[in-house]
Amino acid sequence: xxxxxxxPTPLRQFAGKKDSVEIDASTVGEALAGLTxxxxxxxxxxxxxxxxxxxxxxxxxxxxxxRFLQKDQTPVHESDVISIVPSIAGGSLICCICS
Amino acid sequence: xxxxxxxxxxxKLLAHGARDYPSExxxxxxxxxxxxxxxxxxxxxxxNLRHDPTRAQELLPVDDPSRESEKxxxxxxxxxxxxxxxDSRARGLEVLGYYHSHPDHPARPSNYxxxxxxxxxxxxxxSVERGEAKEVTSWVLSKDRLRFEQEDLKAL
Lengths: 99, 156
Fold this sequence. Notes:
The complex is a heterodimer. Chain A has a single domain, classed as Ubiquitin-like (UB roll), CATH 3.10.20.30. Chain A contains 2 helices and 6 strands. Chain A has helices at 28-38, 43-46; strands at 2-6, 20-24, 57-61, 64-65, 81-86, 89-90. In chain A, strands 2-1-5-3-4 form a 5-stranded mixed sheet, with helices on one face. The termini of chain A are far apart. Residues 95-99 of chain A have low confidence and may be disordered. By secondary structure, chain B is of the alpha/beta class. Chain B has one domain: Cytidine Deaminase, domain 2, CATH 3.40.140.10. Chain B is built from 4 helices and 8 strands; from the N terminus they run βαββαβαβαβββ. The longest helix of chain B has 14 residues, at 7-20. The two termini of chain B are 15 Å apart. The mean pLDDT of chain B is 92. Chain A binds chain B through residues 8-11, 13, 44-45, 55-56, 58, 60, 63, 65, 67, 83, 85-99, and chain B through 24, 26, 28, 58-61, 67-68, 72-76, 78, 81-82, 94-95, 98, 100, 102-106, 108-121, 123, 139, 142-145, 147-150.
């Protein structure tokens, strides 16, 4: 059963320049695992070193935040759309490192 | 890499930083990207969700809420962001990046900024000293996530 994962602009360069990808999956976790096994370079931008979704990465099924559903166990169905949205966050405390 | 602003839009951004001092302000940059160069058509102020600690903690908890507040942290509500993305797409514009202010701190990215960034987006930072916007810089995260690289920023 294929669901559509929408790839945000900054991550398209790691996903064959595609703006969306169809993945066979029955949960959000399976869809993200499928996505990152197909496009390995995406992994570090979505998951931390422990393999957990980075805290600033939000995932929506249709317009629902999976944090308030069943997280990565949230079931997905044919024609559902998964969106990946970063929390834009930052700040000056413990300033500053730069290149 | 370079990011170019319409002069009025850069002024708008600097005024936002001064207006929200001593809190951090934040907003989104809309425009068009062409290869290595981005043209900002509009800088749109967004609310800093750190003013609403309950909702902010639910979305992206900070380690120490007694030290980390809207004065040294910002967070954009992803729902505001989704809305802006939809609206801008309908107008033929793209989200090019985001801006925020560092009140009484240099316009340099912090480690926290780097941990919460993606490549490609421009992260514009302005220093606001005692209520006055001073320096403004723009940064892009490297593909390996290890460092920010500064890009040229101009008002054209």
